[in-house]
Amino acid sequence: MSADSNPQACMIGQHTEDHVCKARRVRRASGMLVLALLAAVASGLTWKAKSDALRGRALKPHPTPYRLTPSVLELIAAPNEVSRPSRPVSRALMFVSETCRHCRAELERWASIAIAHPQLFSEIEVVVITAVPLNRKGIVPAALPHRHIYDKGGAIAAAVNVRVVPLVALVSATGIVERVAVGQNYASQVIAWLANLNGDRI
Q1: What is the pLDDT of residues 183-195, one digit of tens each?
Q2: Less Cβ crowding at N or C end of the chain, within 10 Å?
Q3: Cα–Cα distance for residue pair 36/46, rounded to 1 Å
Q4: How does 72-89 read in b/e, with b if 16+ C-beta sit within 10 Å?
Q5: Predicted confidence band at 73 (pLDDT cuts at 50, 70, 90)?
């Protein structure tokens, strides 16, 4: 049996010429390299497809309203609500990051709306949520009435499926997520959303 037909010839064949064994090793190494490259390409394409699909889901608002669990609502609630329940309020949950310039722009837009239309915030609480504690200076404009939550374990973000920021989730007084919007929004959109959240269901 020749070295070419016996895959173990280079390891245990006693009468195989050295140059044949070397050629055999080169061919095997080349074949393994090609297989590795093909596997890497296939893996990359699969990962890209998964990433694209995930990105598409993250950027789309939820198709229908859904209710937050009691445990998540408790995390969102103000401290006095937990100890002394009061009248339920609607909330605008704003997921932001201090290092995100789009988040700063969105917060400034909401602050401008609060100045021009303070009545929209009379029945709605704005809750700014971050994955890390805010520094002393912060990123929320003083003109925007809000409460801050440090979502240390990420439970609130997970409940709203936050993958990118800024993200705004409008939650009704009954704990139903009515709308999820990703990225910067037009002021007219925000005004309409807040007006609907104050009155009729979105």
Answers
A1: 999 999 999 999 9
A2: N
A3: 15
A4: bbebbbeeeeeeeeeeee
A5: very high
The DSSP code for 62 is P
**9 contacts: CB under 8 Å, gap ≥ 6:** 1, 2, 3, 16, 20, 21, 24
Pairing of strands 90-95, 124-130: parallel
Model confidence over 129-144: pLDDT tens digits?
999 888 767 789 999 9
User: What percent of the chain shows pLDDT beyond 90?
Assistant: 48
Q: Report how far Cα 69 is from the mean position of its chain's Cα atoms.
A: 19
Task: Write down the residue that tokens 């009691």 correspond to.
Answer: 70
Question: Quick check: 187 and 112 in contact, CB under 8 A?
Answer: yes
Cα-Cα end-to-end distance for the chain: 79
Q: What are phi and psi of 5, to 5 degrees?
A: -95, -10
* pLDDT mean over 97-104: 92
b/e for 154-192, b at 16 or more Cβ within 10 A? Answer: eebbebbebeebbbbbbbbeebebbbbbbeeeeeeebee
Supply the pLDDT for residue 176: 93
